[in-house]
Amino acid sequence: MSEADRPLGPHVTLLASPRGGKYPEGRPLLVRGTHETVVIDPSLALVGRPGGAPPADRVLNSHCHEDHVAGNHLYPAATWWLPEADLPGIRSLDGLMAIYGFAGPLREAFARVVVDEFHFMPRADAHAFRDGDVFDLGGVRIRVVHAPGHTRGHSLFHVEPDDVLYLGDIDLSSFGPYYGDAWSSLDDFERTLAMVREIPARWYATFHHIGALEGRAVFLERLDRFTAVIARREAALLDYLAEPRSLDDVAAHRFVYRPGDDVPYADTVERRSMSQHLARLAAAGRVVEAAPGRFQRVRP
């Protein structure tokens, strides 16, 4: 599909993605002030863009994942800024691989993908930002909101005066929240989803899929659907645990991805995601270890 850049105000433009924001692409946000221009999450959509990538003085990354830093290499002269907690991921390939937590042949294969297909370029002099930091571009301010769960450092950006809240990978998609990496947290993600409900804005912009939503009502409707995916996964897991099941069984059954999805790291993501659900269900007394390594729901 094709789409045009979408202005969200006099200073903010959501840049087009030839794939409509579908992974491996995403839509970067361009913010222009009187003194400085910032590009947020430069993606593969900027690689080969007609007319080239728009110039920028500074790159901000909402977090350190391959698709969000895939266009950073187009800005070698700009300063790069990432969340403090995710900073190791941009400083070396090993640091990025630690965020995912893949091991063995899967790690080696994905490391090649990150370099060859996502143009990963380490940057030893990348800078860190923290919750509450403000970037003043001259008449335009970008405020950082720490929103962990997807990664430890995942952050939102609130741009004033255009009143745009950039949501990063709170992408409001039907897939739902992703918390399957070594540096992900289901509990943190749920706290973040509750927090973001309380941030008013005129525009809500996502990196993937949705793009831009105008108005709080439509945003909250989408956010509720996105958040509900977590409860659906947990309910489906409880149904599946009517009989004792191992974590291998759970991973093979697929609660995050569809059974037919050709995703090489699906088993790892399923294990990490659903083990978090299992742990909290066990802590709540709703699941027990019926036999060594085999889990079963507690009947009411």
Could you explain the architecture of this structure?
The chain is of the alpha/beta class. The chain folds into 2 domains: 6-227, Ribonuclease Z/Hydroxyacylglutathione hydrolase-like (Metallo-beta-lactamase, Chain A), CATH 3.60.15; 241-297, no CATH class. The chain is 29% helix and 19% strand. It has 7 helices and 15 strands. The chain has helices at residues 88-91, 93-100, 104-116, 186-196, 216-240, 247-253, 266-283; strands at residues 6-7, 12-14, 29-32, 37-40, 58-60, 79-83, 127-129, 134-136, 141-146, 155-160, 164-166, 203-205, 212-214, 287-291, 294-297. A 7-stranded mixed beta sheet has the order 1-2-3-4-5-6-7, with no helix packed on it. A 6-stranded mixed beta sheet has the order 8-9-10-11-12-13, with helices on one face. The longest helix has 25 residues, at 216-240. The radius of gyration is 20 Å and the shape is globular. The model has no long low-confidence stretch (mean pLDDT 97).
- Overall 3D form: globular
- What is the CATH top level name of the largest domain? Alpha Beta
Order of helices and strands: EEEEEEHHHEEEEEHEEHHHEE
The domain tally reads 2
How would you state the average pLDDT, rounded?
97
DSSP, total strands:
15
What is the CATH architecture assignment of the largest domain? 4-Layer Sandwich
Show unreliable segments. none
Strand content: 15-25%
Alpha-carbon Rg, integer: 20 Å
Helix/strand/pairing class, anyone?
alpha/beta
CATH superfamily of the largest domain: Ribonuclease Z/Hydroxyacylglutathione hydrolase-like
CATH T-level topology of the largest domain:
Metallo-beta-lactamase, Chain A
Estimate the helix proportion, in percent: 25-40%
Q: How is the main sheet built?
A: 7 strands, mixed
Terminal Cα span = 50 Å
Major sheet: arrangement of strands: 1-2-3-4-5-6-7
Helices, by number, come to 7
